[in-house]
């Protein structure tokens, strides 16, 4: 039997409403705990917590019973009563513990229905949380001077996310036999669809070989220092996934949609990125240009228009909202996933530009990043899509002589290092050698001979030439496979990555997909 009592509706709540609760189920379940604790708690402990009880007395009794059960002690009215010999007056009031426990035993129900009772109790708790949240949101809406509407929506969505995370039943165990058979079925399905991968293709053959593709539910982190090309490879992955007819969501926290489009257009049309922004030729040497750079030729405009026409077919959507939270991302991604076209992958550029929920803002940045990382991993599993997270590395790699990044350079990003299924780090040696050359090049050392200095300069130039147009992606963590090095090509004019074996004249968006 459901019993309702009035609740404070908030400052601007209007009519009184009753609080969702089910004291009858609470009494019956606790009676079952006191009579047969083993069977009852074994059935309900994974989905029912003390805070789900509406009556604080019932919550306290359940909490003590759980504690004793997990310590392998017998739970009945004789063993639990000692915990309430001096009951908290704020909780128990005028209730007599012995009389109340006896009343619960009279409400006993069979352990066979305890799970149903537990679900009813938890459902009422979720409704109370939702009611409280809605009342708080309503109060905030009535105080326009306190917060902007966008901030209120963001806080509401974040709170909804935390409520939703506690709504589903615990996942049942799976036998090893079932797990192995399911893996075998997945392998056969991959063969039948003509793919050598467990998931989607990255669009880059070298990454596919090491990671076995992008698998739904996994979180992939691609880290790099500024100017290494993390946006370039992130957009490359998104465009190549979309070129296979798979719907992808690309979020950029530092660029406009037009700038994202220009990057992809430059790669597709093989034009300098500056040419796409300005409509002028930057492939003409400065000394050959009279006044300002000349306008693009007709064939170059046609190449850009061709890229624009082909982009119309791509199921790639761009989100450029600043300071995105996981709650906001989840809301949009869930709508896309539920739609007829579905959602196959998410690319985020880049994670440090995201914001944590209001409850962690203002704390240490490490805590905020840890919350973001944990919730992105949960989102990947919930939607069963790969989430590719771009991240900026700290400065430690630049203090090293070879500048090569390491997984430890992610230490300022909360739990990202732990939560990621795969971590890949971008390195372009040419960038650092060129930077050294432009800052004055090599300097003659003390007591170094002229010939030795010339040899060192020659070796420096050879390193510069050998590194030009090349890059590496180092897979430094791979939960389901080996680590290794992926050799890449990098076009500095179009800011585009390709596999080392790709023809530089091949289609920028679709290349590499034939290897899936």
UniProtKB/TrEMBL annotation:
As recorded in UniProt, its EC number(s) are: 5.6.2.3
Catalysed reaction, written as an equation = ATP + H2O = ADP + phosphate + H(+)
| Family stated for the protein in its record | Belongs to the helicase family. DnaB subfamily.
Where do the SF4 helicase domain residues begin and end? 193-504
Q: Which NCBIfam families match?
A: phage_DnaB
Assigned keywords, A-Z: ATP-binding, DNA replication, DNA-binding, Helicase, Hydrolase, Isomerase, Nucleotide-binding, Primosome
Protein name, entry field: DNA 5'-3' helicase
Q: What organism does the record attribute this protein to?
A: Gluconobacter cadivus
Q: Which domain of life is it from?
A: Bacteria
Gene Ontology MF term list: helicase activity
Q: Does the keyword S-adenosyl-L-methionine apply?
A: no
Is the Membrane keyword given for this protein? no
């Amino acid at each position: 039997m459901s019993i309702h009592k009035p609740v404070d509706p908030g400052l601007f709540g209007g009519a009184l409403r009753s609080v969702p609760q089910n004291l009858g189920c609470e009494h019956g379940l606790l009676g079952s705990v006191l009579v047969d604790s083993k069977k009852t708690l074994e059935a309900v402990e994974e989905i029912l917590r003390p805070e789900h009880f509406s009556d604080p007395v019932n919550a306290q009794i359940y909490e003590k019973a759980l504690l004793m059960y997990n310590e392998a002690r017998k739970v009945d009215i004789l063993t639990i009563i000692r915990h309430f010999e001096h009951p908290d007056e704020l909780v128990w009031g005028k209730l007599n513990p012995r009389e109340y426990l006896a009343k619960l035993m009279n409400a006993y129900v069979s352990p066979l229905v305890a799970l149903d009772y537990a679900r009813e109790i938890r459902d009422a708790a979720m409704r109370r949380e939702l009611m409280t949240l809605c009342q708080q949101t309503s109060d905030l809406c009535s105080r326009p001077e306190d917060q902007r509407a966008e901030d209120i929506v963001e806080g509401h969505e974040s709170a909804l996310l935390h409520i939703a995370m506690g709504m589903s039943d615990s996942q049942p165990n799976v036998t090893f036999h079932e797990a192995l058979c399911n893996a075998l079925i997945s392998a056969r399905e991959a063969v039948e669809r003509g793919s050598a991968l467990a998931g989607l293709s990255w669009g880059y053959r070298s990454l596919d070989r090491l990671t076995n593709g992008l698998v739904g539910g996994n979180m992939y982190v691609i880290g790099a220092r500024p100017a290494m090309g993390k946006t370039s490879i992130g957009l490359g992955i998104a465009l190549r996934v979309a070129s296979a007819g798979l719907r992808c969501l690309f979020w950029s926290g530092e660029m406009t949609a037009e700038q994202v489009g220009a990057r992809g257009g430059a790669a597709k049309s093989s034009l300098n990125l500056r040419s796409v922004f300005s409509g002028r030729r930057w492939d003409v040497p400065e000394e050959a240009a009279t006044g300002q750079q000349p306008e693009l030729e007709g064939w170059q405009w046609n190449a850009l228009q061709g890229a624009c026409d082909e982009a119309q077919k791509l199921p790639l959507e761009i989100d450029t909202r600043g300071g995105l939270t996981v709650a906001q991302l989840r809301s949009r991604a869930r709508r896309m996933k539920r739609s007829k076209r579905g959602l196959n992958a998410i690319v985020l550029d880049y994670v440090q530009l995201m914001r944590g929920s209001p409850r962690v803002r203002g704390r240490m940045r490490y805590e905020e990043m840890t919350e973001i990382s944990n919730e992105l991993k949960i989102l990947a599993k919930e939607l069963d899509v790969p989430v590719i997270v771009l991240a900026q590395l700290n400065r430690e790699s630049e203090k090293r002589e070879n500048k090569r990044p390491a997984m430890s350079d992610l230490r300022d990003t909360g739990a990202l290092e732990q939560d990621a299924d795969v971590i890949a780090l971008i390195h372009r040696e040419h960038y650092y050698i060129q930077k050294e050359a432009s800052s004055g090049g090599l300097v003659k050392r003390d007591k170094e001979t002229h010939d030795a200095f010339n040899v060192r300069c020659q070796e420096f130039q050879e390193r510069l030439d050998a590194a030009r147009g090349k890059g590496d992606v180092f897979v430094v963590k791979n939960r389901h496979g080996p680590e290794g090095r992926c050799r890449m090509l990098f076009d500095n004019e179009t800011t585009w990555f390709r596999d080392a074996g790709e023809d530089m004249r091949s289609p920028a968006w679709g290349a590499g997909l034939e290897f899936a």
